Write the structure tokens for this entry.
Amino acid sequence: MASSVLSVFETYQKARVAFVQSVADLATRAQNIEIMQNAGVMQLLRPLLLDNVPSIQQSSALALGRLANYSDDLAEAVVGNEILPQLVYSLSEQNRFYKKAAAFVLRAVAKHSPELAQAVVDSGALESLVVCLEEFDPSVKEAAAWALGYIAGHTGELAQAVVDAGAVPLLVLCVQEPEISLKRIAASALSDIAKHSPELAQAVVDASAVTYLAALITHPDTKLKRQVCMGLAQVAKHSVDLAEVVVEAEIFPKILNCLKDTDAYVQKNASTCIREVAKHTPELAKLIVNAGGASALVEYISEAKGHSRLPGIMALGFIAAFSETLALAVVVSKGVTPLKDALITEPEDHIKAASAWALGQVGRHSPDHARALAENEVLRVLLANYMHEANSADLRTKSKRALKAILKKCTHLPALEPLLKEAPIEIQKYILEQFAKTLPHDQQARRTFVQSGGLPLVCQLAEDADGKLAEHIKGIQDCYPPEIVEYYSPNYANQLMKKIDEFNPAQ
């Protein structure tokens, strides 16, 4: 009799095991999810989280995690069925396999939205997850770090909650562990905390995270390097002081080598970090240039395409913006050509706009800087982007601003003359300003201006000109004898005909 009773219980146990394992397996395939949801799988799994058999608990947690991971609706169903408190309650009591599975559920719920992440926090999960970071088993630490990173990534408030729970020093310890995957996840979580505000970045800095992250720039693991470069970027972006902390961790010239990495994401994240350092002060920009950063960035944007190019383009723009010397470093490093190439070939307007802005920062300093751009046909490309009505308003605005800034310094007349014929009146005035400045002092240029058709065009424009444009035109016309100006004026032919009509040979 006893054996038959035990047999019933054994059968029941085997059925529970088979059920949760099957559900966990079925949940890996998207086509099964809706069917299981409609069948009330959440309600069936919930009591099994408290089962007295550890393997059933683990498998039910794994199944719930896979379901919650699939969509925000299912994640909300986990919250709505009050499963989170059960998970958190038993998290500290169970074995490492269960802890890993439970942390997976919390991560899967938290990832979808700030609201769901807040629900995880409200369930009391943070304290339990932080305790898991102190576990001996690396996989438990990894699962907890992953969940904490997803929570922190949404908002500054959630990131602050993670900091307040004491996660940061333990995440820094995880970065120092030998397991590569744990290093990656911990570095990513620190990045997710630091990105929101200077205060949160400072919390990461205060735990000595930057020192340990910087030491991993040369690590052979590609995915780890991605996270490290981005983590350093997220710290550096907020302020001069934080950027200096990153620089003082001796990331240069090591991070420049990452621009040549075989992985496109490593390259992009490294260039993002360089950009976030470069943007703050001339001193930091100079430090990058002195380390060989200008040449490295130029080489990078020459090879990269699309969004990967963008941080490198911005970095060169920030460097060039600070001074003539730094802008010259971009020119000498042959940075003008790839910036122009991006302006021509990139399909997305916001990348083109960044290139236009960067070129403007290079060319606005002096006639020599402007000439370097003019001789590379940059002015015509900027003009074309400004005049193309299908381009975005931002691209057209940045192209116009860059063109205006360069033209105000450009005294290289051979580049300006063809532009004069193509440009609309709002650009012509900047071009004519340079001719008005230069022609009085250059006899050959005055002759060339007439031969090329510049003077006739100016005389034509004079008919309707006013304001600054009229002032520049008069300055140009004053460089020539009145009879020459009269000859090239639009009404000259009519005046000649009038004189013929008035002429009487019999008199």
Notes: The chain has a mean pLDDT of 86. Residues 2-26 form the longest helix (25 residues).
